[in-house]
Structures are given as structure tokens and as C-alpha cells.
Amino acid sequence: MSLHARFRSTLRTLFGKEELAVELDDELKHFLDSLIEKNMARGMTRAEAERAARLELGGVEQVKEKVREIRLGTGLDTFGQDLRYALRTLRARPGFALIAILSLALGIGANTAIFSIYSGILLGRSPIEDVDRFVEVYTRETDTDFLEHGLSSYADYLDVREQLTDVFEDVIIYNTTMPILERAEGNEYLFGEVVSANYFEAIGIKPVFGRIFDPATDGLVGAAPTVVISHQLWESHFGRDPGVIGRTITLTGTDFTVIGIAPPEFTGLFPMEAQIWYPITLRPLINPRSTELTYRGERSSFIKARLRAGTTLEQARGALAALNTRLTETWPEIHSDAELVLVPSNTITLHPELDGLITGFTLFLMAMVGLVLLVACTNLASLLLARALARRREIGIRLAMGAGRFRLIRQLLTESILLALLGGAAGVVLAHGLLQLLLAVQPPVPIHISLDIGLDLRVLCFSLVLSLVTGVIFGLLPALQTTRPELMQALRDEYGLTIRRLRRVGLRSALVVAQVAVSALLMVSAGLFLRSLSRASRVDTGFDLRQGVVATFILHESGLSGTESHAFFERLINRVSNLPGVEAAAVTDRMPLGYGISTTTIYPRGLATEAAAEGVSTDFSRVTAGYFRTMGIPIRAGRSFTPIDQGEGEPVVIVNEAFASEYWPAGDALGQFVRVGDPGEEPRRIVGITGNGKYRSLGEQPRPYIYFPERSEDQYICFLVVRAARDGLELLGPVREAIRSVDRHIPLLDLTTVARHMELMIFMPRLLAALLSGLGLFSLILGATGLYGVIAYDVSRRVREVGIRMSLGAQRVQVIRLIIGDGLKLVVIGTVIGLGLAWLASGALTSMLIGIVPVDPVTYTLVAVLFLAVTLVATWRPARAAAAVNPVDALHQD
Amino acid sequence: MSDQKADLLRGTLSMLILKTVTLEPMHGFGIMQRIEQITEGAFQVRPGSLFPTLHRLEQEGWIEGEWGESENKRRAKFYRITDEGLNQLAVEKDNWSRAVGAVTRVLEAG
Predict the structure, then answer these.
(1) Structurally, what CATH architecture does the domain formed by B2-109 represent?
(2) Following DSSP, what letter does each residue of A600-658 receive, concatenated?
(3) How far is Cα A645 from Cα A631, in angstroms, rounded to an integer?
(4) What one-character DSSP code corresponds to residue B73?
(5) Which of A34, A44, A183, A396 is deepest in the core (most CB within 10 A)?
(6) Contacting residues for A708 by C-beta, under 8 A, at least 6 apart
């Protein structure tokens, strides 16, 4: 076939339409005339000849329609026609169009927003140039704290780098660092990465100014310390001055020479934005007590390795297995329960387990918003179906006129897809707004987290596909229904339709049931979260601290030794306690319900139990003497810590009631001993028992907990908690001043009121509850309108039936009961299905709920009652309308 | 009456039309009459298939329509075959005889 001819013909079809129509008329007229002449030549009269000719031609319009379909086979022109037709029908009912577009916009918008979060976090492009050839080296730890993908140590890094040269060509190690940048304007924490000297070269990052690390010169012991700074730091602290190369900056007392500036798009391999990079071998300059480089068991770093060209993952795994054997033989006490494992870098974004968590969470959200979209779809499908059935006479006529069924379906689909696309466009705008909202409520963590969340091309493609699929889903069913060939019959036999119509109402009823079920599911989830949220504010956290402030410090790279930080705490607590309105102050290394979790292995002594022999992993914190009074944690038995416990006194601990009753059920825990860590360690006496509290999350069951007195250990993160008799906001300034006057060298990471700190704890449950109740409410409204639509439509179709019933003596009340009963039936079925689904899905919710079981009878009952109420409202008007039918008029209708 | 006349086999109509307009340019009615004549009325061409097929062939570029005056002094659209149409006809003829040959062999083999 000639493309040229096809092109010319299509052009003609598109632009010479009038002319073509006239030509086709003429052509068919000639044919008809010839046929008539032929018939007359056979001896028919003119009238007979004409009739016979028309019969043979079999409908001029039908032939024309077929020819048009052939000619417009390219679909272009038909599409234009369908589009104009669709626009016309939408304009004719702007209310319907608006509702449809709005509900689709909400559904598609919510989906787009969630997807862009998922895509931003987990589908982001790796900054590594040829990430497909990289693998990560994790440590699989099979001792008490089982870790599938634990971090690895510096010693492991050296072994992999030096012993696996056959399979790996570049091996890099990196870890976080948070030194103090010393400046005249005031010191501050910098977040950065300590890296192997080959880091930048291996992952293919080139500096915008200066140079990257050279393994031959940088990071060597005795050489001048060097640092690469981020583009952002260069902008914010050095005014984009290229002259910064070669200058020195002071990090925790050590001068580093700036050698290069990283490109703007590179912020390190952690999700937190790195501001500096320095060689890992220089860490002791910042933190002389770090055992990272010397202790083989300190597994705190990430290792990545690039496979040699032609080396497969399996070969690398084989080589690693051999290394594991050697390690276990050489270092049995460190490596017997730990083996190195490989994971391809392109299969993970942050960390295998973390990725899984995020994926699970976003999938849960996607499922929720997906259900809402489904409700919107079914709602629109039943609205369209109702409309299409109302238009069945028109459709029947068009079918009779020779319109192809396919063509009609396509036309109806064009309408629904147009709606979906408009809804999708509005949804993308909505998603943009939603994202701004979500990102605005990001918890104010002091470190900037680089989240590349936005409406990029991938997200837009997702929305487009979603809109198209949506349009087809809710458009196809009504289109197929209404263009069924028996409608031709319906045209002729309006009465006969009554029976068939009942079946069609069946489909609409099924849609309503589905809608009700899904909204019930969403409402139950929303209800559970709302109830758990209201519980959250009443849940007993085990401490009673309402007013005050919390200050956060990072001390492990502050240059302070354990003894120095002990002295720092003492002066800090003294100074702050003397501020007006302050009741008590203390320092702890872990806030209950905070972000971090720390556990240690505890061996209860003198017991013949497995726990005593094997040890139990237990949550703990180190606290100063005034901690329990400051936090308002009740001491149930024994005593609190004293300054002597923090000094040279006998080693002691305080445990909570859950710990005491777990190991000494007889209630004689006080005075017993526990051992921590190595068998050689001196046992510690239990001197106090506190009330139970919530430590990791508000929803947790009572958990054993152990407190150690702060005893000049090296500190990592620590919190100064101030209990006050006045509003924390008024104390922020005085506390800041007090801290500065104690040591102006140590910067504050964060300073906030107790109230704000508490808010952060219930941030996630609150966000989820808000999100889900919004979705649930929205789907409830959709479900109710759907129900109303179906009942109202059904009533309008049953006017004759109602008329007959009433003329046979049925009372208005009976009619109302009949109509409401029909609606109720659908809702009861839908609600039961929805509650059943919610019950099935409840397992997924358990971990996110606070203080209530997922199968919460109150929530289930409330949802059921709510749906019954909605049914009554949705069916009341149609039922009244039915009851108001005048039997005489009704029987005369049609 | 149409019951005794065989409907054209699917796909053969376009071949017959191409063949018919090889001889001389013809209008739709003429093509219909010629096919019925040659097949001695065995095949009936329905207008409902004739016109769509004509327009499809035209769109494919195998035949060209041209307006002229018919034998009864009326304005009519005459179709003539193009070079591409001739090629296409050769292809379809070839396919047809192969199909007929195959079917015949099957029948005779029984």
C-alpha cells in the first residue's frame, strides 16, 4: 500500500469532509437510479421499481455509515467526532461533569501524591555512575540480636579490599560523622561522611572546583588533614568563593585543608545531606576514643564494591564464602556468629530491611488511596450506567440507523476517558498541593534530609496511565451494557423492558454493594486510627512531664572525653536548675518514645532460667541522678540514683516493674544482681524499681527496661531535660543562654519545648489518622451519593409498579418501607463484606495502632451504625417521592 | 430469493472488483452488474458490502475514483485500477489459486 495515497486520502477525509459526503450521496443516488431504471426495464411501475431498489440497497444511511467507518478507519476523524460529542454531552450536564471530575481528581490526586513519595524515596536514581556493577557488603549476624543485613567493620573492609582483588576492582567504605565546625560566628554541627580515599573516584563523582581525594596522599597518618565540602556548604558558608580551595577549616579542634567542592547534585550516599567528606583514617583526629579503625567487632560502616568486568555475582559470593571461612578460623570470637553477605547495589536504595519497611508502608497507603479511587470509579460507573440507560432510546435509534456497536462503545469510552483525563489533570494539581502540605509537616529534624519528592516525568506518566485505566474501567462496563443488541428490541417493546431492566438494576446494585464495602473498609481503618489517636493522648506513658524544655547534643565528636562530658553535665544541670521556674533537670542518652532504640544484653543472676544463661536483649538508657524526678517517673520500690552511683560507688541499676516481674515473679527483685556483657564484669545490684512506661512506641505492650547511672562513659547523643513550673516557651531563651555560658564550644543540635517534643512522638499516628479519616469520609460521601443515585433511579423506574401497589391498597408507609428496605439490603450486604475485609486486613494495622486491638468492637459497631444512618438519609427522599406517587397518573405514564 | 444465491466468500469481493475494473473504468452499479453477469448470478453483490469495499480499495490506493457521465447520461463515479492495484490483484489471484488448489487436493484425496 502506498503511504502517499493513504496520506492524501486521510487528508481528504479530514479536511474535505463536506465534499466527501456530497460525493457519497451522489454516488449512492446514481446507484439507486440505475437500479430503478433496471427494475422498470423489467416491467415494474415506477413506484414498484423504487420500492424494490430501496429494499435491495438496504438502507442508504447504513451503507453510508459503513463507508464512513471504512474511510475514517484511521480513527483520527472519528476520534475528533467522539471528542466533540463527549464535550457536548458533558457541557449539557455540568453538575455531573463537575462531580465526576472532582471525585476523580481526589482519587487520582491522592494516588499521585503517594506514588511520588514512593518514587522519590525508593526509585530515585543512585548518584553512583555504574551502580549496576556495585554490590554492598553487609554482615549477617546470627547471635542474640539477629540481623540479616547488619553493617560491617573497617577490618572487614580491609580484608575484602585486600583479599578479594580477583572479583572486586574498587572497594569503598563510608560512615557518618558529625564534627563541630568552629567559627567566629558560633560553633555548629556539620553532618558528613568519613570515607575511604578512593570513594569519589570509585563512584564517579568529579569536583566542580579543586580535586577529590588521592589514595596516595590523602588520609595517610601524619599527612595534612584534607576535606571535600559540599556545594551547599560552599554556598552557605563561603559565598561561592573559589578561593576557599587551600584554606583551612577547623573541625572539632583539628585544622583540615579544603581540597575540593562536590558537584551540587551530590549529597553523599546517605539520605541525610552530607556537608563534608574526610578520609575515614583521620577519624581519630576528631574522636580519639573511636575504636572504629582498631576493633574488628565494631560493625558501623557501609561497604560497597565494584565487580570486575566479567565477574558474576555468583563468583563474588564464592570468593566471599572463602573469606568468611578464613575469618571464622582467624577470629572465632568475633566472626563465629557473623558472616559477610553480598547484595547487588541496584536492588536497594537505603538498606534492604529499611527499603522493605518503606515499601510496605507506601504500599499500605497506596492500597488505601487505590481503594478510594476504586470507589470513585464504581460511583462514576453507576452514574454513567444510569445516564446511559436513560439514553437507551437514543442509543437504540442510533444502532438502528446503522451505527456500529463498536463505534458507540468507543464514543461512550471517549466520554469517560475525557472525564478521567480532566480528573487526572485536576488530580495532578491537587497532588502538588498535597505534597507541599505533606513536606511542610515533615518533622523538624535538625539534619536536612534530601528527599527528591516532586512531580517528575515518571510521576506524571503514572498519573496519565492511571487516568486512562480509570476511564476505561468505569466507562467500559456501562458502554457494554447499554449497547447490547437486545436494546434494539427494547426500542420496539418498551413494556417488555420492565423485566429485563430488573437484571440491569442488579448490576448497579452490585456496584453499590462494592462501593459500600470499600467505604466500610476505609471507614473502619480510619476509625481505628482515630480511636488510637484519641487513646494516644490518654495513654499512660509512664512519665509525667508537661512543662519544660529538651536540649539535644551530639557529643561523640565534640572532643569531650567521658570525664569531660560528665563534668559538662554536672555544670549544665547546676546552672539550669538555678533558673527561675525550673524544678529539676537531668541528662539522659535516650528519651522515651524518641527515634533511637538502644539495647544491651543483660544476664539476671542467680536464676536457673534460660534468660540467665543466654542473656536477654533489653532496652536501656544512662541517666543522671535527677532523671526520675525530672521526668516524673514513679519509683515503686527502693531508691533513685544518687551522685555517688555516678561516681565511684558500687555498680547499681534501676529496672522497671516489667523487668522485675519477668525475672523475679515472686516480687523479690530488689537487691538482686544483673550482669551486663562480658562474664568478667562486676555484677550490678538492683537498687530501685520504677513504674512501667512506653519506651519505643505508644502502642507497645509493657517492656522490660533497665537504667544505668551516667558514669563518665563516652557519650554519643544526649538530652538535657528541664522540668519547669512555667511554660517551656519562656524558658527557651534562658536555657540557651545557660548552656552557652557553661561551654560555648559545644553547639546545640536542637532546643525545643517538652510539648513540641511530645507532639513529634505521635506525629506519625496523627498523620496517618488524618489521612485515613479524610479518605474514609470521602469514600463515605461517594458511597452515599452512589446509593442515593441508584435508589432514586430505581424509584423513578418503578413508578408504575408503585402505582399498581397503591391502587391495590398499599399504604404510603408500606411503600416507604419497601423502598428503604431495598436500599438497606444493599448497604447491609456491602457493610458486612467491608467489615469482613477490614477484619482480614486488620493484621497489617496492628503495629500502627495505640492501645486498641485491630478488631475493635466499638469501631466496627460505629461504622455499621453510620452506614445505616447514611442509608436512611440516602433513601429517604426517593422513598418519599415514591410514596407521593398518584396511582392514576402512574398508571397512565408511558 | 437471495437464499439460493451464494454470498461472496470473505475477501474475494475485493479481488473480483479489482479484476472487474482492470478491463475499463466502471461505476458501482456497473461493477455489481458485471460480477453478477459473469458469475451468471451465482454471486450476489450487496450494496452494503460493495460501497465500503470500493472506498477501502480507493483508500489503499489500489483503485482511483473519477467523476464522469454514465451511459444513462448521469453523473457517476468511475473507478479505474492503479499500478499498485494491478500488483495487488496478482498477489490475490496467486493466493486464491493456491487456496483452491489446496482445497481441491483435500477433497480429491478423500
Answers:
(1) Orthogonal Bundle (1.10)
(2) EEEEESS--SHHHHH-EEEEEEEE-TTHHHHHT--EEEE----HHHHTTS--EEEEEHH
(3) 19
(4) S
(5) A34
(6) A620, A621, A622, A623, A653, A676, A684
Partners of A70 on chain B (C-beta within 8 Å) are 52, 55-56, 59
Domain that includes residue A182, residue range? 131-348
- Which 8-state DSSP code applies to residue A280? G
Closest CA to A704 of A656, A653, A639: A656
Given B27, B33, B62, which is nearest A30 (Cβ)? Answer: B27
Q: How far is A77 from chain B (nearest CA, A)?
A: 15
pTM of the full structure: 0.68
Same domain flag for A284 and A413: no
- Residues, chain B, total? 110
Three-class SS of residue A539? coil
Instruction: Return the C-alpha cell found at A864.
Output: 455499621
| B93 and A CB contact within 8 Å | no
> Following DSSP, what letter does each residue of A338-403 receive, concatenated?
EEEEEEEGGG-SS-HHHHHHHHHHHHHHHHHHHHHHHHHHHHHHHHHHHHHHHTHHHHHHHHHTT-
Number of domains in chain A: 5
- A293 within 8 A of A565, measured Cβ to Cβ: no
Q: Return the sign of the alpha-carbon dihedral for residues A790, A792, A793, A796.
A: positive
List phi, psi (to 5°) of A446.
Answer: -65, -25
Interface size, chain A vs chain B, as Cβ–Cβ contacts under 8 Å = 76
CA distance A56 to chain B (A): 8
Give me the torsion for CA of A759, A760, A761, A762, rounded to 10°: 60
pLDDT digits (tens, 9 = 90+) for A365-417: 788 788 888 878 877 777 777 777 666 666 776 666 555 667 678 777 888 88
- The answer to whether residues A193 and A338 belong to one domain is yes
Contact B48 A6 (CB under 8 A): no
pLDDT digits (tens, 9 = 90+) for A58-115: 777 778 877 777 766 544 556 777 777 778 877 877 777 887 888 888 888 888 888 8
